[in-house]
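Most newcomers find our protein records easier to grasp once they have seen one. To make this concrete, we reproduce a full record directly below:

…
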Amino acid sequence: MQKILAPAFLLLMGLISNAQSYNPDKIKPKALDQYDQAVEYLKAGEIREAIPVLQNCLVIDSNYVDAYLSLAAAYGQLKQYAASIKLYEKARSKDSLYFKVYQLPYSINLAGAGRFQDALNQVEEFILLPNLGDRSKKAAQYRKRCYSFALDYASKHPDQDKYQFLPINLGDNVNSPFAEYYPNVTVTDSLLIYTRAGDHQREDFMESKFDGRKFGMSEPIKGDINLEPKKGAITASQDGEWILFAGQFSGQGFGNYDIYKSVYTPTGWSEPENLGKNINTEFWESSPSLSPDNRVLFFSSNRPGGYGGKDLYISYRSSDGKWSAAQNLGPEINTAGDELAPFIHPDNQTVYYTSDGLTGYGGSDLYLLRKNAAGQWGKPENLGYPINTIENEGSLAVSANGLKAYYASDRADSRGDLDLYQFDMRPDIRPFRTIYVKGTVTDQQNGKGIPSTVELTDNESNLALMKIQTDEKGAYLITLPVGKDYTFTVNRKGYLFYSEVYAMKQKQADSVYEKNIALQPVLLNASFVFNNVQFANNSFELPKTGLIELEKLLQVLHENPSLKLQISGHTDNTGKVEDNEKLSTNRARSIVEWLTAKGIATGRLSYKGYAATKPIADNATEAGRAKNRRTEFTITDL
């Protein structure tokens, strides 16, 4: 059964003042009796039961205008807009004067079908009708703003018309006669988790594994977290090791719904842990979303001090595992309405969420936020039609490669209530495509895995995009957004850092990197070749990208205050020997000068230029010469 707000004539009751009354005197009595029965169904919200009765009214009397209008409204509630429009137009053909007061619901169905210019024309005519009630005027002006927005958006996004929105139902392995919603996928798209409604307001967390072709039979998530019936939105960490969710656990919460964390164990998910007072309050907290490095949490709350009903908040996780006091994302993002269901993509630079406080297509729309060059969140961008419609849109999850999205909808092929669907993302609203790097960090001396810090830095802005901790065995997984060049570094106290450049600006996201890293302990004569300190031809000015590695070297020197280093410069064998000696010496000295300017004592540092006297590759090839043109450091004293 599906609810309907009201049949057409009930919807407009009180909105139209002094409108012409439809005279049913000429309608056949049997049709009137059938219509009364249909009205009872509609009042009870039994829309599907009402439709055949209204259709029978029109079989008995094909001139029954109110039956056409109520049947049009019923089909509109079922989102069968084409059928609704046809019925409205049939009613108009019977009595165009009487129809005028129904131009508003007619326009809504035109907009539902994507005919925004026709919808705008109808609502503008409706607004000009004499003696409109205040509620009617307000409703019409709201719809006019929505239709105007849709037309303006289309004019600014001409490629929108080329986009085919073809959602695919995830099928019986995932969906059921109950409602499914809040989908979330791990970074490899191998695991789908979501919420399923049940009897008596119960909600359960479900999971389904992807085998490369389809999602397998879903089952309740293992562990104790499904024991409590009152739960809500759920999200998974990108590596699948954590889940965060909203719930009402007796005796564990601060108030209404709180956000909890559970960790994967061999026997299932651990007992839920409340994230604490920096996240949760006596009010409502829900819709958690965790950044791919597990360091940033987005969620929604209706706590006091916000800008509307429910606002988006953010909290940062420190190295000791504690969450900072939640911060409101501010008035550029939050509105007087409700902001819900944030989803941060694995690129760590794009967030999708819903809002009903911004002018859009109607109800709540889906929006995206992108980080700007300074690492700050930009202004909300509407995802456009037909992803957004005149209805209320819910949560959205996007695959790591940015090509697919998952969302909940009650489309015509739904198994019952809301089902989960997959669709192709329009190119201009996709996040950065990502690949992921996974591996293990070990001790070079004994091969044992060691917990370490893995960091991804944008070479252009020098901003750290992600920073994760490996597990106790040194295993890690980190995403690399395509479209930028990065430096990938690994740190552990007592070891030299590891660094590698990932030039992704021109590459496609088409593979998985497995990178096992052996860290060198801080030992006498241990050396390190800089990857990012690539000087320009015949120059000894430090390149901007080199600062990423130099900051890591500075950290090593601070952690080991008695450590002494020699910085050495090297060239290939081209050019004059004396020029190469001078250039290599100046390059080594420029690094020492940078370190001393940062507070490192000069007595701990020395430098030397070796020119081409210590090659590490064959100078007969360009690839070999490139390796020989290097700058490195060596530990000279502990």
Q: What stands out?
A: The domain at 432-521 is CATH 2.60.40.1120 (Immunoglobulin-like).
